[in-house]
Amino acid sequence: MAAPRRGRAKDPRPVNNISFLLPFIVLIGAMFLMTRSAKKKQAQAAQMRDQMTTGTGVRTIGGMYATVKEIGEDTVTLEVAPGVHAVYAKNAIGAVLEDSEYNRIVHGFSETPEDTPVVPDDASSLTGGDAPKTDEAPKLDLGKKDEPKDGEPKDGKTDGEPGTK
Q1: What is the four-CA torsion angle of 143, 148, 153, 155, rounded to 10 degrees?
Q2: Would the N or C end of the chain have less CB density within 10 A of its end CB?
Q3: What are the pLDDT digits (tens) for 93-147?
Q4: Confidence (pTM)
Q5: Up-side HSE of residue 94: CA atoms within 13 Å toward CB?
Q6: Which of helix, strand or coil describes residue 95?
Q7: Burial class of residue 35 (count of CB atoms within 10 Å of its CB; 0-12, 13-18, 19+)
Q8: Chain centroid to CA 43
Q9: Residue 58 CB: number of other CB atoms within 10 A?
């Protein structure tokens, strides 16, 4: 006669396979959503690069502002300074700028409406304007000290002090 088996009894319920598959399904769904948004961004960047025309202001991915001079199949010739041309890959163009934005950034032209209030860059308007105006700050003397007098050593040490030659 065989001895009865001790231990856990066999579970009559089958293992739920969906509970094992659920984390993998969630992971695959997240990867799908991430690649979809990346493809959208790439499509927007390609559309933006297609909007480039000669004379358009652009910003490279390195942060340099330039004007488009010539457009090739995979490259763009940019004028980075008057008379200075550089060839860039089209993928290196980070943004195509509107004329007003390019002129504001590069040339400092600003189109401020007349009804925009001017905000002072100091607190003089808050104090009533009676404060004395000082146009000049005290000047610091950053020059060399006077040359030593005849008979004095240049390092300022005399014969009786330690560390002299």
Answers
A1: -20
A2: N
A3: 988 888 888 888 887 776 655 666 767 677 766 666 555 556 666 777 777 666 6
A4: 0.47
A5: 8
A6: strand
A7: exposed
A8: 23
A9: 22
